[in-house]
Design a protein that fits this description.
- It comes from Candidatus Hydrogenisulfobacillus filiaventi.
- This is Type III-B CRISPR module RAMP protein Cmr1.
- Keywords: Antiviral defense.
- InterPro entries: CRISPR-assoc_prot_TM1795 (IPR007522), RAMP_III_fam (IPR005537).
- The protein has 336 residues and is of the alpha+beta class.
- Helix content is 30%, strand content 18%.
- The chain contains seven helices and eleven strands.
- The strands form three sheets. Strands 3-6-1-7-8 form a five-stranded antiparallel β-sheet, with helices on one face. Strands 2-5-4 form a three-stranded antiparallel β-sheet, with no helix packed on it. A three-stranded antiparallel β-sheet has the order 9-11-10, sandwiched between helices.
- The longest helix is centred in the first third of the chain and has 20 residues.
- The chain is globular.
- The two termini are 34 Å apart.
């Protein structure tokens, strides 16, 4: 078998990375370590669905976690004390490099907070005086890049398949850069080894997602963000006409949903920056994504990957109430 896989991906929504440095130089748009980090995240998310069913008590749960850490290190590399080299090397080449901009989402204006601005805190301008932060520089949607996955000699085919499944999950649900869990920097796989992977219709998108959710149906809720029987997915915006319009509509739906969840349950959507202690911060288990279809339409979707435990000691939230409060996951059992 070939020890390399070549993919092409599309940048669906604008991407925001680091700020300019004092010399005015912008950072690289997409670097291999950032892509590898995304692949590791989605590999872990899928891995629990495969092995988590064996975790029926605390002892077996810890055994599964230890096995997953070892497997992840075998695939992607690990540091001391069990240092080992990654079995896959990544190369990124831009096919169509996007231009820079700093005027979207719009900066907040009283009474005019649209959905993308609501999702873009940390990107849009904020603060006053000495605490003022300018709008971050971003890169426009529509760019595309080639990703080459070069596997080490004698790599098992199962390893290649695992990494390619993580690549697909990243394309279906994820992105790169700042606020990627809120739909910024969404990416989509367009080809793999020369074969088109662009989904034709909304039904095709739902079918691919449904297969992933069904594979996780036997896994208990995990101790980290991953697919399990508690995972839920929903299409929130159908037939968006362009990425930014779809993102705005998704953001407005999210803002409405957060209001329905209520303040008491809101910590389950992630603990914000104002949390008093660093250990109390939690990345949101609710991931928003914009996906293109071959029809020219765009889809705004939400993925819920709850974990147990999620909140710090002393904080408890009924996740079932959160799911019901969001309201997106009721149709078809909340699974596509």
């Amino acid at each position: 078998m070939s020890l390399a896989r070549e993919a092409e991906l599309q940048l669906v929504t604008p991407l925001f990375l680091g700020e300019t440095d004092p010399r005015g130089a912008l950072p690289d748009l997409v670097r291999p370590p950032a892509v590898k980090g995304a692949l590791r995240f989605w590999w872990r998310a899928l891995a629990w669905a495969r092995w988590g069913a064996q975790a029926q008590d605390p002892a077996s749960r810890q055994e599964v976690l230890n096995a997953l850490r070892a497997r992840e290190g075998e695939l992607f590399g690990a540091v001391a004390p069990r240092a080992r080299q990654s079995r896959v090397l990544l190369q990124v080449t831009w096919l169509k490099q996007p231009g820079e901009f700093d005027d979207w989402p719009r900066n907040p204006v009283p009474g005019q907070l649209d959905g993308s601005t609501y999702l873009g805190w940390g990107i849009v301008a904020s603060g006053r005086g000495a605490n003022a932060q300018p709008h971050r520089t971003g890169w426009r949607e529509g760019g595309s890049f080639r990703l080459v996955l070069q596997f080490a000699p004698r790599t098992d085919e199962a390893v290649v398949d695992e990494v390619c499944r993580a690549l697909e999950a990243w394309s279906l649900f994820g992105g790169l850069g700042a606020r990627s869990r809120r739909g910024f920097g969404s990416v989509a796989l367009t080809t793999l080894d020369g074969q088109s992977r662009l989904l034709e219709t909304l039904a095709d998108y739902k079918a691919r997602v449904r297969s992933l959710l069904e594979a996780a149906a036997g896994a208990p809720e995990p101790p980290y963000t991953a697919f399990s029987r508690g995972a839920r997915w929903a299409v929130v915006v159908e037939e968006g006409k362009d990425p930014r319009e779809t993102h705005r509509r998704l953001g407005e739906a999210y803002r409405t949903a957060v209001g329905q969840v209520g303040a008491a349950l809101r910590p389950a959507l992630g603990l914000p920056i104002p949390a008093r202690q660093l250990s109390q911060r939690r990345a949101s288990p609710l991931l928003l994504h914009i996906h293109p279809l071959a029809t020219g339409d765009y889809v705004g979707a939400a993925l819920w990957l709850p974990s147990d435990p999620f909140l710090p000691d002393g904080m408890a939230v009924d996740l079932q109430q959160v799911r019901e409060g969001l309201g997106w996951f009721q149709a078809e059992g909340g699974q596509a």
